[in-house]
Amino acid sequence: MSQAPVNIRELLDRRKVGYSLEAPFYNSQEVFDADMKHIFGKHWMYVGVEPDVPEAGDYMTVQIGNQPILIIRDDDGEVRAFHNVCRHRGSRVCTHDKGSTGNLVCPYHQWTYNLEGKLLFAEHMGEDFDPSKHRLKPVHLKNVAGLLFICLADNPPEDFQELVDTMTPYIAPHQIANTKIAAQIDIIEEGNWKLTMENNRECYHCTGNHPELTISLYAYSYGFAPSAETDEGMKQYEEMVKERHAKWEACGLPSAEVDCLDTKISGFRTMRMPLDKEGQSQTLSTESACKKLLADFGDAAIGGLSFWTQPNSWHHFMADHIVTFSVIPLSADKTLVRTKWLVNKDAVEGVDYTVENLTAVWNATNSQDRFLVEESHKGSKSPEYQPGPYSPYTETLVEKFSNWYINRMKTLIGD
Ligand code: FES
Ligand SMILES: [Fe+2]
């Protein structure tokens, strides 16, 4: 980074509502460090799913800024998170992305912890050494009907419980604990994490960029500027949504929109939306990608339940599969986007589904989105870049993302 020092407080204070952010928010090292400290250090982040650690002793690791984290299922079946930092001299205890173990043995000097983080064994430490003072440090973890969220703060935002209470009935029917990860793909976007999130919060760009994704999406679901030509179509779409919601809700599938993206510390939004054509799934044919549905829904055409969280995730739940996305900033200019596709754990690859068909839409969409984010990032480095206006019809959720970010930063940074 070669920019002059930035005054983040001043930048936050002069943010113009309804406009994209000033360039330093996308590319200065100071803002990036503040983002890691205040946004990723103090909010609940989505990091994985229960099927990442299906059995006792299964673990996964994730790196958030300079903090290595370990997520593990203990002998009682509970999923826990720890700082993946040995209490001896700090080595990472688990060095692989995923694994399975009876106890956690540090590779350096073999200090050994049980799955609850208790230090069981440390050789040559003498009589006075107290193992109980050297447990692995816990990290807050919440399991939201199978979606795993962690928070690195000592005192995590308490309103996350509202998200848990609201979302559990929406997500639970899709039975995440009864799924397996059929595919996972990590891509690294050469762009700031906020551009990744902004891009996700609108479909203004979908018609022009996502031929595969838009097969199953209704154009009217993206938001439209009112006009004489589109009024009738919009009305019909809204009627259809109302009718489908009533039908799905009657079958025990909560569907109504809930939007608190910028009104809560743990901001989120959800809605179950009808899918076009066959209406079953986000596939190229809009038919189910997996013959074994996630549960006994009766009908596969239950639309797509979408769930968006601040600061770092979005998810789509259908009758036959689930796609989840987590965004992890790597640097001011680099962002990891991790996509997982989940299917019924009894589904057999090659018989009930193929990975190619299952992943076709979002593989294409992710790569198109990567291009869009990278182009925005390049443009934001130009001295001629200046914040531009969001569409009040198709970019309202982008505005909510930016609002949430600015307000959280203002509160946490202080004066
Ligand atoms: S650093 Fe882990 S045992 Fe020494
Ligand atoms: Fe996109």
UniProtKB/TrEMBL annotation:
**The protein's name in its UniProt record:** Aromatic ring-hydroxylating dioxygenase subunit alpha
Is the keyword Cell inner membrane in the record? no
Where do the TM regions start and end? none
Q: Which CDD domains match?
A: RHO_alpha_C_GbcA-like, Rieske_RO_Alpha_N
Swiss-Prot/TrEMBL keywords: 2Fe-2S, Dioxygenase, Iron, Iron-sulfur, Metal-binding, Oxidoreductase
In this record, what's one Pfam family? Rieske
State the species of origin: Leeia speluncae
Residues covered by the Rieske domain: 44-150
Task: Look up keyword Cell division and say if it applies.
Answer: no
Entries under PROSITE patterns matching the protein:
RIESKE (PS51296)
Please list the cofactors this protein needs.
Fe cation
**Family indicated by similarity:** Belongs to the bacterial ring-hydroxylating dioxygenase alpha subunit family.
**Which superkingdom does the taxonomy of this entry point to?**
Bacteria
Which terms in the Gene Ontology molecular function aspect does this entry carry?
dioxygenase activity
The protein's matches in InterPro entries, at most eight in alphabetical order, are given as: Rieske_2Fe-2S, Rieske_2Fe-2S_sf, Ring_hydroxy_dOase_asu_C_dom, Rng_hydr_dOase-A
